[in-house]
Write a structure and sequence with these properties.
By secondary structure, this protein is of the alpha/beta class. The protein folds into two domains: 142 residues, Medium-chain alcohol dehydrogenases, catalytic domain (Quinone Oxidoreductase, Chain A, domain 1); 138 residues, NAD(P)-binding Rossmann-like Domain (Rossmann fold, 3-Layer(aba) Sandwich). Strands 3, 4, 5, 6, 7, 14 and 15 form a seven-stranded mixed β-sheet that branches. A six-stranded parallel β-sheet has the order 10-9-8-11-12-13, sandwiched between helices. The protein has a two-stranded antiparallel sheet with strand order 1-2. Helix 2 crosses helix 3. The longest helix is centred in the last third of the chain and has 17 residues. It is globular and about 60 Å long.
Length: 318
């Protein structure tokens, strides 16, 4: 099979490698595609801790495809089942996953891409946010994740204030149900506008979905007394400082919404399958760029540079 290997900072190569064999309790997947995650960008840049070359297919963890082979003891799955998987070497034509880390996709989703991991991540973040009807919710950063959270929160009856840098993203937020949009330009102007919109009390819930210092600082400023600040951005480029005086004074609940328990991950993916299959959530318009595996480097660069109209890149195999 073909698999992508990161040869060095910003350098990709394709290799012909042997097909992986599923062990006991595992399945092999013939992948249809894999989403490109922003968490790949720091390894792509080549920090000191990164070791090159990577293993073939490494960093790809948003794969979906068809069960191709079963390991010993696997029950409830069969060859030919179309599934989303939580696996970790999916920048390749085949990958192996534990049988309890795949979710069968219904026939109604035939032909549709389904990067289960980020969709499940959105469902898990939404659940942990505790969003209810009548609340005011600010979402900072309207990319793929922020757009889905805007839809889920607005459908739950919350009043969503979307804050993002790009006009394209603000237009998208309105289409996903945001009641108000604010350009992410001036720190103090944003605070003043949210204060005005909320009668001076700020927001019941604030979701930071960028993964940078400034949006995290801003998120705390926008959270009301005894409100909940949800960290959904992936902060992997170094330590953060927080205004603990403000966090203490307002009595904030701070939720790090990144899941590490595989069972909870899978719960989110199953919820995402149900939401998309039922028509409650339609992510199809959020997959804005597609690349073959040989152009994974372009997909990573687009994820980094975010050209106009970009939300989510998929690497597709067939």
């Amino acid at each position: 099979m073909q698999a992508a290997t990161l040869a060095g900072p910003g350098r990709l190569r394709l290799e012909e490698v042997a097909l992986p064999e599923p062990g006991p309790g595992q399945v092999r997947l013939r992948l249809e595609g894999c989403g490109v995650c922003a968490s790949n960008l720091t390894p792509w840049e080549g920090p000191e801790w990164m070791q090159f070359p990577t293993e073939p297919g490494a960093l790809g963890h948003e794969g979906w495809g068809v069960v191709d082979a079963l390991g010993e003891g696997v029950e409830g799955l069969r060859a030919g089942d179309r599934v989303a998987a939580l696996s970790y070497k999916s920048y390749a034509e085949y990958d192996v996953a534990d049988a309890d880390a795949v979710v069968r996709l219904p026939d109604s989703l035939a032909g549709q891409p389904f990067p289960g991991e980020p969709l499940g991540c959105a469902m898990n973040i939404f659940r942990r946010s505790g969003i209810e009807a009548g609340q005011t919710v600010a979402i900072i950063g309207i990319g793929f994740l922020g757009a889905i959270l805007t839809k889920l929160a607005s459908d739950a009856g919350a009043r969503v204030i979307a804050i993002s840098r790009r006009p394209f993203s603000l237009d998208l937020a309105r289409r996903m149900g945001a009641a108000e949009v604010i350009p992410m330009e001036d720190h103090h102007a944003i605070i003043a506008r949210v204060k005005e919109l909320t009668g001076g009390v700020f927001c019941d819930r604030v979701i930071e979905a960028v993964g940078k210092q400034w949006p995290l600082d801003l998120a705390a400023e926008l959270t009301r007394e005894r409100g909940r600040l949800i960290v959904a951005g992936y902060h992997q480029d170094g330590p953060r400082q927080v205004n603990m005086w403000l966090w203490n004074w307002r009595g904030l609940d701070v939720i790090n919404a990144h899941e590490r328990d595989p069972k909870v991950y899978m719960q989110g993916i199953r919820e995402a399958v149900e939401a998309v299959a039922s028509g409650r959530l339609d992510p199809s318009g959020l997959y804005t760029h597609r690349f073959p595996l040989a152009r994974l480097d372009e997909a990573l660069n687009a994820t980094r540079d975010r050209p106009d109209g970009f939300l989510k890149a998929l690497v597709t195999f067939r």
